[in-house]
Amino acid sequence: MAEIKSTLDIIMERAKGITVTEEEKAQFKRRDLEEKVRGLLHKALGGVMDLDRLSDQLAGLDKADREVAMAVLLQQCLGNVDPEGDNKTVLAILEHLLKVDTTSVTGLLAEFHESLEKGKTDQGEKIKKRLRKAGISGSAVVPNILAAPDWHRYISELREKFLGDIDAIRDKLKKT
After folding, report:
1. Which of 6, 92, 119, 169 measures 20 to 30 Å from 52, CA to CA?
2. d(CA 116, CA 108)
3. Extents of the domains making up the chain
């Protein structure tokens, strides 16, 4: 009867001639570290881990890994800034753990919200004006801004601008 090989045996047979260079090992280690940082950030943003525990986890890394982890954390935090969401945890991580001045980020968020409110008002007025021209008016008329195609385009453009501004901040911080 023929011998049945396990999956591990087959893999080991095929991997005999494969060698991994030091550069590849460093890349694997960096990729693992980046995944670990993303996982820790995900836990912190999800409320599963508090900032003190996140800080402890990062402090437990050796100096070189901690520097890489902090750079990855910075990039990931900026990537997780949501102009329409709750950014308290992201801003707290940026300020307290990464020691980043968040004035520019909070300014962008405030600018986004101001533009959003102005856009809502303007869009509502446009809809009311169209309805009045069609003979529909009164105190019970409430414009449905979300149904307006102009509104979706406006929000999309507003988000694009915000994300571009965040990328500019990210690039600026990456250089320092």
Report:
1. 169
2. 12
3. 22-100, 102-176
